[in-house]
Amino acid sequence: MSQRPKKLLEQVSDALRRKHYSYRTEKSYVHWIKRFILFHHKRHPKDMGAAEIEAFLTHLAVTEKVSASTQNQALSALLFLYRHVLDQEVGPINALRAKPSKYLPTVLSKDEVSCLLDQLTGVHALLARLLYGSGMRLAEGLRLRVKDIDFEQHHILVRDGKGEKDRVTLLPTSLYDELQAQLAYAHRLHQKDLARGLGAVYLPYALSRKYPNAEREWGWQYVFPSHRISAEPGTGIRRRHHLDPSGLQKAIRQAAKAIGLAKPVGPHTLRHCFATHLLEAGYDIRTVQELLGHKDVKTTMIYTHVMQRGPLGVRSPLDG
């Protein structure tokens, strides 16, 4: 019996996985392609082109007033669809573009960070401290593998960060004991999973085929494993993933509310604080750039605008 032809959105997911896009990107791209099709009354994209893409993007900017980054993500999704799934070139896109916003990150003082962290408990407290002490993104912290923590060299190897780049960042010595306890917990969990015939963790790309036994090895396990076994999106394979990001996001929002912070605060705020506080301490901006994994130093320069010494580090004449 022949298999039914795959639907368009299934083809999109397959193409994204072949090219090793993250699951979050896959969900976003599928979302925008679906929105594009519905906007044009369910016409098939192969029967449309640049004009329809421009109309959709203009609608997002003018009617829905989305940000420039959101509109750019929608455009990237549609270009991926045409180039890598439909194998069609659509030519230049001349849609009305959303106005880029001049974004300044939310940064807390050291005292505010200390109060925020003190409100957290358990694994969320450790994870939040690690993000602040290393400058990792939330996804990078959650995907951290046992083998990538180096207590001897005092660093963390961040694998496959944003832009599929590896980098080295700081391992706060003040967290050694807590991290060792977390690793001991994760190891006990892993041993129980192995005893149940489980214990295989997700490996990126084709590593599971290249190293058939690696997925059950201790070094490849997550430092922050989930409390439960679940089906893997896309494949349906049951395994233990890492903690869900929503747990820390919710815990930090509650902690900020508890201490009366009026600023919008989330896990990524800790990364902003890491960079800003290092610059305030006098560390070279190129060093901070490398620790953050920024491709361009201009991205890192934004933190000079939110340092406690005022915009660009200038002292007000009123303060003498």
From TrEMBL:
Example of a GO cellular component annotation carried by this entry: cytoplasm
Localization in the cell: Cytoplasm
Quaternary structure (record): Forms a cyclic heterotetrameric complex composed of two molecules of XerC and two molecules of XerD.
Gene Ontology biological process: DNA integration; DNA recombination
GO terms assigned for molecular function: DNA binding
Pfam families in alphabetical order: Phage_int_SAM_4 (PF13495), Phage_integrase (PF00589)
Family per similarity comment: Belongs to the 'phage' integrase family. XerC subfamily.
Domain Tyr recombinase: 103-319
Primary location: cytoplasm
Keywords: Cytoplasm, DNA integration, DNA recombination, DNA-binding
Organism: Litorilinea aerophila
Biological role stated in the UniProt entry: Site-specific tyrosine recombinase, which acts by catalyzing the cutting and rejoining of the recombining DNA molecules. The XerC-XerD complex is essential to convert dimers of the bacterial chromosome into monomers to permit their segregation at cell division. It also contributes to the segregational stability of plasmids.
Record protein name field: Tyrosine recombinase XerC
SUPFAM superfamilies: DNA breaking-rejoining enzymes (SSF56349)
Record domain Core-binding (CB): where: 3-86
